[in-house]
Amino acid sequence: DSGVTQTPKHLITATGQRVTLRCSPRSGDLSVYWYQQSLDQGLQFLIQYYNGEERAKGNILERFSAQQFPDLHSELNLSSLELGDSALYFCASSGTGTSVSEQYFGPGTRLTVT
Amino acid sequence: GNSVTQMEGPVTLSEEAFLTINCTYTATGYPSLFWYVQYPGEGLQLLLKATKADDKGSNKGFEATYRKETTSFHLEKGSVQVSDSAVYFCALSPYGGATNKLIFGTGTLLAVQP
C-alpha cells in the first residue's frame, strides 16, 4: 500500500459527460501528479500541483482541469468526454517537488467512456 | 527534449533465468532515473532509483546502474521468479527546473514461466 488513495476505482460514463476523479496524497506529501495510461499513448504526465499551486503541465487537454485543495487532496475534472478519454488515470504524490524525490502511485481510476 | 526508450516486449523467461531489460534515455544535464513495476490490476510501484552518474539502484534482487556515457539504465536480475511477472517501466525525472514530473518508457512485459 503506497498510502495514496484514489476514488472511484471504476467509472463508466457516456460521451459528452463530465466526471471528477479524486486523489488523497500520502500523509505529509506536498506534491501531487496526475498521469494517464492508455494503450495507444502509454503513460503520460498530465499535471503537477505543489502545495496548492500548479507546478507543471504536460499533455493535458483543455477539456481537463485539476486543482489541489488546502488539505492537499486533488481532483481531476474531465469534461465533454470522448471515447478516446477511456484510460487508467493515476495520481502520485511526493514529499517535495525536486527531481530526486520519488513518487508514490495510487491504484488508479479506470475510466470507460461509452 | 527528454525521452526514454525501452526494449520491446514481451520478454518470456523460465524461472531462475537471468533478466536484462534495456533502457536508454535522452535528457539534458543529470536526470534522476527510475524503474517502476506494475503488477496485473495494480498501480505502479517504485522498484529502484539512481540520482547521479555511476549510482547503482537495487531492490529485491533487481539492479540498475546509471551510465552517463551510454545514457543507459538497464534493469538486471540474476534469477527471476514467477512472481516477477509484471510490466516494468523505465522513467526519468528532468534535472533542475520547476518540476520533477516523470517521463516514462513504453513499458516491457515480463512473463516468467515455471
Any low-confidence stretches of chain A, pLDDT <50, length ≥5?
none
Round the mean pLDDT of chain A to the nearest integer and report it.
93
* Structural shape of chain B: globular
Query: What are the segments of chain B in which pLDDT stays under 50 over at least 5 consecutive residues?
Result: none
Describe this structure in words.
With 114 residues, chain A is mainly β. In chain A, 0% of the residues lie in helices and 53% in strands. Chain A contains no helices and 11 strands. Chain A has strands at residues 5-7, 10-13, 19-24, 31-38, 42-50, 53-57, 64-68, 74-78, 87-94, 104-105, 109-113. In chain A, strands 2, 4, 5, 6, 9, 10 and 11 form a 7-stranded mixed β-sheet that branches. Chain A has a 4-stranded antiparallel β-sheet with strand order 1-3-8-7, with no helix packed on it. The mean pLDDT of chain A is 93. Chain B is built from no helices and 12 strands. Chain B is globular and about 45 Å long. The model of chain B has no long low-confidence stretch (mean pLDDT 93). At the A-B interface, strand 4, strand 5, strand 9 and strand 10 of A face strand 5, strand 6 and strand 11 of B.
What features would you highlight for this structure?
heterodimer, A: 114 residues, 7-stranded mixed sheet, 0% helix, B: 114 residues, mainly beta, 6-stranded mixed sheet, 4-stranded antiparallel sheet
Quick structural summary:
Chain A has 114 residues and is mostly beta strands. Chain A has strands at residues 5-7, 10-13, 19-24, 31-38, 42-50, 53-57, 64-68, 74-78, 87-94, 104-105, 109-113. Chain A is globular, with a radius of gyration of 13 Å.
